[in-house]
Amino acid sequence: MTGFDYQEALKNASRSMVRVKNPRRLLKMITRFIDREVGVTHSSVLMYDHTRGRYIFVDSKGGLKFPVNLVKLDQDNPLIRWFHERELGSLVSRDFVSKAQLFGWLHNDHLLSQDPNLMERLLGVQEALEILRASVCVPGYYKSDLVGILILGEKLNKKDFDIQELTFFQTLANDAAMAIKTAEFQDDLVAQNRELKDKHSELEHLVGELEEMRRKERRSYYEIVLSLAREVDEKDHYTYGHVEEVERLGLLTARSLGLNLEGRRHDILAAGLKLHDVGKIGIPDEILKKCGKLTEAEYLVMKEHPRKGARILEPLANFEEVAKIVLHHQEKFDGTGYPYGLKGEEIPIESRIVAVVDAFHAMTSSRPYRKARSIEYAKAELRKYTGTQFDPQVVEAFLSELNQMIREETALNSDVPLDRAS
Ligand SMILES: [Fe+2]
């Protein structure tokens, strides 16, 4: 070993250690290196095994090598305890332990007299060294964790290890411990990453379930809407399919106006269109079904239907916006409508759409007190009251959608469905 450049060897060793990802390979490199460069009867590595809570021989080289994985040292083995309790014992250095050093300590009466347990502990370590046929043991720590122990037999040239060599082994052992821990951390990170990915897919599954719940919620929302709307239909003696027609025309008009109809917005408008007259449920039949003109008192009762409608929807969760559309569907653009006399854009746009579509559809449907009017008549009426009763933009959008629809249906040479009622 004379002339051996420890500094250079260390530099090379730590450089390759950083690159090594597999701790087993690293330990093999170390034992092979010592076996080749130092020349010992054997060089072995004891490593802490997390799963078993013991130290195990993971690599061994040389003539007197140990069977790997078979020799195990428990936590209470005197050698393991000696290095574990490094922090406690300040009487002697525990950076490594050698046969020569132990011999010296065991013959130092002054040292032994300072701690009544020291002799017994040293004898235990000495015995452990004999069993391991070790001349020197060098612990590798990471922070205060004893990661492993480098065990060296006798030098082949029968000389003692000198301090330069021992310092070299120490640095090597601690660097290796660090490299091993780093590799473990990397493995942990990979495992954690995998776990995260699992969690992520679990989350995706949950999101899917939530969406499914939302879909179901929306479905029941529609079921309530529809059953209420049908009741109104029946009571008001509109032609069958009135609510569906109003909904269809209203949605087309809204789309033509460029309103946002994404997700919930679509559902809210659709429900508003279908349910605008739901309050008529609360109007006595003799007023609702009266053939002649309503008296002033009867008309006042009739005018309550938007409020009644909004009140019917009140207890239903998520129906607030629908209730608002219903409440204001009888307002007029010039502020002369009811129940609040709102004007222009004060009236929710959805309510302004309902007003136009409903007026048109009511005119073109047969009622108990009159026959259905023609489409042309209804269109003329909308134009006549545009700006006073109706929002001009809504009327324009509605008429353009209606004309488009009529053109398409005429082209198909089928009946115009809006004329069914006439
Ligand atoms: Fe109404």
Task: Explain the overall architecture.
The protein is of the alpha+beta class. It has 16 helices and 6 strands. A 6-stranded antiparallel sheet has the order 3-2-1-6-5-4. α1 packs parallel to α7 (163-236), α2 (23-37) packs antiparallel against α7 and α8 crosses α16. Fe (ii) ion is lined by residues 276-277, 305, 329-330.
Report, as a whole number of angstroms, the end-to-end distance: 114 Å
How many domains comprise the coordinates? 2
The appropriate CATH architecture of the largest domain is 2-Layer Sandwich
Percent of residues in beta strands?
5-15%
How would you sum up the global shape?
rod-shaped
Q: What count of helical segments does DSSP give?
A: 16
Write down the CATH class of the largest domain.
Alpha Beta
Series of secondary-structure elements, N-terminal to C-terminal: HHEEEHEHHHEEHHHHHHHHHH
Largest sheet: 6 strands, antiparallel
Q: How helix-rich are the residues, as a percent range?
A: 55-70%
How do the strands line up in the largest sheet?
Answer: 3-2-1-6-5-4
Task: Report the bound ligands by name, code or SMILES.
Answer: fe (ii) ion
Average pLDDT across residues? 82
